[in-house]
Design brief:
The structure is a single chain. Helices cover 76% and strands 0% of the residues. It is globular. It is mostly helical. It starts with a helix and ends in a 14-residue tail after the last helix.
Length: 210
Amino acid sequence: MGLISGLILNAFGNGLCISADMGSGLWTASAVNMTKWFGWNTGLLLFIIGVINAITNQFLIKRLDTKRLIGEVLYVMFFSYFVNVFTNLLNFLGVPSLPIFIRIILSCLGVVFFCVAISLYQRANIVMHPNDDTTNILRFLYLKGNSTAAQIIDFIPPIIIIIVAGIAIGQVYSVNIGTIFSFIFNGILIASADKWIWPALKHNFKTKNN
């Protein structure tokens, strides 16, 4: 239940951010800016980033976990599909044409939704998006449970990508109030969701010996 509810809520939150068009998560923004730079498909770039992240996680846990690797790649595929479904639905309902103030609120609400989702499926720890697993690994193996510090470290690569791409193309895309809200509050929202949303769902973090 934690996995399924987290997957659906995560896709809906991201779809809401995309449809509101007032900024989204940094990894999505980095993919959009690379699309403008190289002319590649955004979905393809998100998938490539996800695969690279999944491979990186194998190094972070210091062992080969084939089940984890395959699960994360599959998650990226299904997650992208559901994001498209929700984005198209929200666009059909007229979210992009709403007043800018309402879209700002919806974009920030989308961030809240996907942070709650991350909390749910990170605690379930069956399979998750590779980026979120990176945060989970950093949090418990390297940062003594500090979710805020883990989230900030995970944001460093997409920030670098956005800056480099912005310099190359002379403009930054898909970075707005929602992105700033995500950068500041992601870790705080995830930690708060751990405490207040379904508190009986405890972290099922797997180590080498457990």
